[in-house]
């Protein structure tokens, strides 16, 4: 169900380690703002969104999320940086060294406070998820934060297909032929959401996608060795200069959704 009185929930049942000034002006944690964010319907054409997603394997929705939802999620990023001795979460000069070496921050490693900063965002993506999956109910496999600070490990995301990292959840088959249907069924019932908390431009870590590449299934380059048998692993032919690649620049409140089969990567963060 929906959690409307988040402030009361925190006060009554959780131990939150944060200074009082941290909560000053926190819009998404004030009950009226949270009610507004969760009760407002996101404005999009479901049929058009689903058709675009099916054709390209990726969907870019501009100005999709309420501002309060984004501000709440930004608080999660800010608290992580502060807790490790850093300054503003977008300031590369003060970004903590410990975080620089860690590409992702899964939610199971976050404090309860940080996780609850993400709650309004997760709720606001529910209707979009139901639309793209054509489902009455949806769930979440995992959520993580990624800091693309210049010079850190997450600034150079290699080209890949998400399905490669999810094979163990999709199938246990030892050969490709019986696994193929299972992989397709898994991808048809899942997708990845990318929600920028800062501006992502061509020189600030923007995502890149090979439009339509999801239609060819899992590239043999990502097959387990057992599926390849005696065959050599083929070269991987997707990169930034591929003819089908588009760079999708985004800003806070935008949302990207992509298929587990679509080939994608990220531009490096070369900004000051």
Tell me about this structure:
Mean pLDDT is 85; it is low at 9-31. Helix 3 (46-56) packs across helix 7 (126-133) and helix 4 packs antiparallel against helix 6 (112-124). The chain has helices spanning 6-13, 31-39, 46-56, 67-83, 97-100, 112-124, 126-133, 162-165, 167-170, 176-188, 225-228; strands at residues 58-61, 104-106, 144-146, 192-194, 207-210, 245-248, 255-258, 264-266. The protein is an alpha+beta fold and 272 residues long. The strands form 3 sheets. The protein has a 3-stranded antiparallel β-sheet with strand order 1-7-4. Strands 6-5-8 form a 3-stranded antiparallel β-sheet, with no helix packed on it. It has a two-stranded antiparallel sheet with strand order 2-3. It contains 11 helices and 8 strands.
Keywords:
3-stranded antiparallel sheet, 35% helix
Q: What is the ordering of alpha helices and beta strands? A: HHHEHHEHHEHHHEEHEEE
The rounded Rg comes to 20 Å
Number of helices: 11
Mean pLDDT: 85
According to DSSP, the number of beta strands is 8
The low-confidence parts are 9-31
Structural class, from secondary structure content? alpha+beta
* Helicity range: 25-40%
Roughly what fraction of the amino acids lie in strands? 5-15%
Largest sheet: 3 strands, antiparallel
**Largest sheet, order of strands side by side?**
1-7-4
Global shape: globular
* Distance between the amino and carboxyl termini: 43 Å
